[in-house]
Amino acid sequence: MDLATIIGILVAFGLVIAALGGDGFLFLDFSSLLIVIGGTIGAVLVTYPLESVLGVARIIKKTFMSKADDPTALIAQFSDYATRVRREGILSLEAHLKNIPDDFLRKGLQLTVDGLDPQLIQEIMETEISCLEERHLKGAEILQTFGNLAPAMGMIGTVIGLVLMLKRMNDPSTIGPAMAVALLTTFYGAVMANLIFIPMAGKLRARSREEVLVRSMIVEGIMSISRGENPRILEEKLNSYLPPKERKVRS
């Protein structure tokens, strides 16, 4: 569970609602919501395939539920693997493969145990990282598109409201509702874009960078093990991926 995302949304919406004071219900308008939400979804459906848009719920879930791996724990894990390999040989890792929850790490070690050429292992794993990054960035791109289109739909709603208002100027009772539609659609579009979609797209990009970093470390560790490098050298290589304050120091 990502507390930063939850806290950020609660704080943002909480402060906006608090700023409305006791007049919050005046900002509820079904027609305005229909224009912004319906128009945005429709425009996104034109932009992306149906299956991609239907997967938005799963994409949004990653901003709340995704948990980054601990790079320092990964370094300790690879150090243990390297020490074991130097003492008992590469086949000693085979018994531990089934206990590794990370599919990517398990696959890399399995290929190493199977005796594949290190260069081929590296190519396979780097291709998988590239495909993973592409999938993540596509999800962020969809959310970014939602964020770009929501304010535009708000502006369309504003134009609709102003046209209705101008056409009914002879009836003063209709001016208020028409003006409400004109202003609230812009409000809804701006809120959805800047408090939901664009921040979530940014969070997905950050998650993608974190996961790519960890997987790049895994590839480096796999390559060191396949070459039979000293555990100390392996640690130094993996530590170079991290900021100085986060690096694992051998005791």
Task: Quickly list its features.
251 residues; mainly alpha; 0% strand
In short:
The chain crosses the membrane at residues 34-57, 145-166, 178-198. Keywords: Cell membrane, Flagellar rotation, Membrane, Transmembrane, Transmembrane helix, Transport. With 251 residues, the chain is an all-alpha fold.
Secondary structure layout:
Blueprint lengths: L2 H18 L9 H18 L2 H5 L1 H10 L5 H18 L14 H11 L4 H50 L7 H52 L4 H9 L12
SS-based class:
mainly alpha
Describe the main β-sheet briefly: none
List the helices and strands in order: HHHHHHHHH
Distance between the termini: 32 Å
Rounded to the nearest angstrom, the radius of gyration is 26 Å
- List low-confidence stretches: none
Can you count the helices?
9
The residue-averaged pLDDT reads: 86
- Roughly what percent helix? over 70%
Number of strands: 0
Count of folded domains: 1
Could you please describe the fold and organization of this structure?
This protein is an all-alpha fold. 76% of the residues lie in helices and 0% in strands. The protein has helices at residues 3-20, 30-47, 50-54, 56-65, 71-88, 103-113, 118-167, 175-226, 231-239. The two termini are 32 Å apart. The model has no long low-confidence stretch (mean pLDDT 86).
